[in-house]
């Protein structure tokens, strides 16, 4: 049975949320984790660069985390979606899709972000598999292979220098007119990084693994993987509705203790930073849990 009143309700049960719950459970806090079961990396076949779990599936890591968190008797887990959060005097009222009203002294949003897919056929089928965002997460698996970068302007210029560490077969796809300067293009050419400005129509792939890019003019370009700098939006808009400040990059603004601009509301994980990895989310969740417990003790 889910109780009604908690010290902390954590919204989002992936790596940041579970890590925070572990810290708080070990601090003997009454904690509820509410999760809707839609992690951003659910299509990624393997997670990397997380010590002791390198190469495991994201789902397997999350399942181990949930099992360990629930070993602590003061922690609970609910499969649901949070529909509203309201402040009521010295606590928060949290409503769920199951029409349950719960209360908490503190609320942590570990809700992640939603990537906005470009208007390219089959891109979303490849996202997280061979259309990827982070070389530290995926670069080793595609080292030395034919690799693309879907980006433009200064971002494309800077990111391509990083990606060149993993492969010398790198091509920038601007998907339309390039905004990379002539001077930047000359520097890239010295590393044999060239720019293709054709509009992309679709990704030809096999179960998410890219084989080639097909352009609007009918021509193709063979590829093994492509990095993409995508636009995103907050997966959950409730923090903004509560008055939490959103920074210029679109992330929830937090201080060094994972506090948002609204007292009693905290955030951790991908919704606060562009450093998107399982390891960094776990670290942020651990930190959030510790400082939430500190604030509960000190009455903040």
Helix fraction?
A: 25-40%
Distance between the termini: 30 Å
This entry's quaternary arrangement is: single chain
What is the arithmetic mean of pLDDT?
A: 94
Derived from helix and strand composition plus strand pairing, the structural class reads: alpha/beta
- Low-confidence stretches are none
Number of strands: 17
- What portion of residues belong to β-strands? 25-35%
Output the helix-strand order.
Answer: EHEHEEEEEHEHEHEHEEEEEEHEH
Q: Please give the count of helices.
A: 8
Radius of gyration using CA atoms only: 21 Å
> The biggest beta sheet, please?
7 strands, mixed
**Global outline:** elongated
Can you describe what's shown?
- The structure is a single chain.
- The protein is α/β, with parallel strands linked by helices and 300 residues long.
- 26% of the residues lie in helices and 27% in strands.
- It has helices at residues 15-26, 58-69, 123-126, 135-138, 153-163, 182-190, 238-242, 278-298, and strands spanning 5-11, 31-35, 75-79, 82-88, 91-96, 101-109, 113-115, 131-132, 147-150, 170-173, 194-196, 200-206, 209-215, 220-222, 225-228, 232-234, 265-267.
- Strands 1, 2, 3, 4, 5, 6 and 17 form a 7-stranded mixed sheet that branches. The chain has a 5-stranded parallel sheet with strand order 8-15-9-10-11.
- Helix 1 (15-26) packs parallel to helix 2 and helix 1 (15-26) runs parallel beside helix 8 (278-298).
- The two termini are 30 Å apart.
- The relative contact order is 0.18.
- The mean pLDDT is 94.
């Amino acid at each position: 049975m889910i109780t009604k009143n908690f010290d902390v309700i954590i919204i989002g049960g992936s790596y940041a949320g579970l890590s925070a719950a572990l810290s708080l459970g070990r601090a003997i806090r009454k904690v509820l984790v509410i999760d809707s079961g839609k992690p951003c990396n659910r299509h990624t076949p393997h997670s990397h660069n997380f010590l002791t779990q390198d190469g495991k599936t994201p789902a397997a890591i999350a399942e181990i985390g949930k099992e360990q968190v629930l070993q602590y008797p003061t922690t609970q887990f609910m499969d649901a979606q949070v529909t509203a959060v309201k402040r009521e005097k010295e606590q928060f009222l949290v409503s769920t899709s199951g029409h349950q009203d719960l209360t908490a002294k503190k609320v942590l949003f570990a809700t992640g972000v939603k990537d906005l897919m470009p208007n390219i056929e089959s891109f979303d089928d490849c996202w997280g598999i061979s259309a990827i965002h982070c070389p530290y997460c995926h670069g080793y698996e595609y080292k030395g292979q034919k690799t693309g970068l879907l980006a433009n302007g200064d971002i494309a210029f800077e990111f391509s220098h990083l990606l060149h560490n993993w492969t010398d077969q790198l091509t920038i796809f601007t998907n339309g007119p390039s905004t990379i300067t002539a001077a930047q293009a000359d520097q890239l050419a010295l590393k044999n990084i060239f720019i293709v400005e054709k509009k992309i129509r679709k990704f030809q792939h096999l179960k998410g693994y890219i084989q080639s890019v097909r352009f609007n003019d009918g021509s193709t370009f063979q590829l093994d993987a492509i990095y993409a700098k995508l636009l995103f939006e907050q997966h959950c808009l409730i923090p903004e509705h509560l008055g939490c400040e959103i920074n210029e990059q679109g992330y929830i603004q937090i201080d060094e203790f994972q506090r948002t601009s609204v007292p009693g509301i905290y955030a951790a994980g991908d919704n606060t930073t562009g450093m998107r990895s399982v390891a960094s989310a776990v670290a942020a969740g651990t930190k959030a849990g510790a400082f939430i417990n500190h604030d509960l003790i000190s009455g903040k």
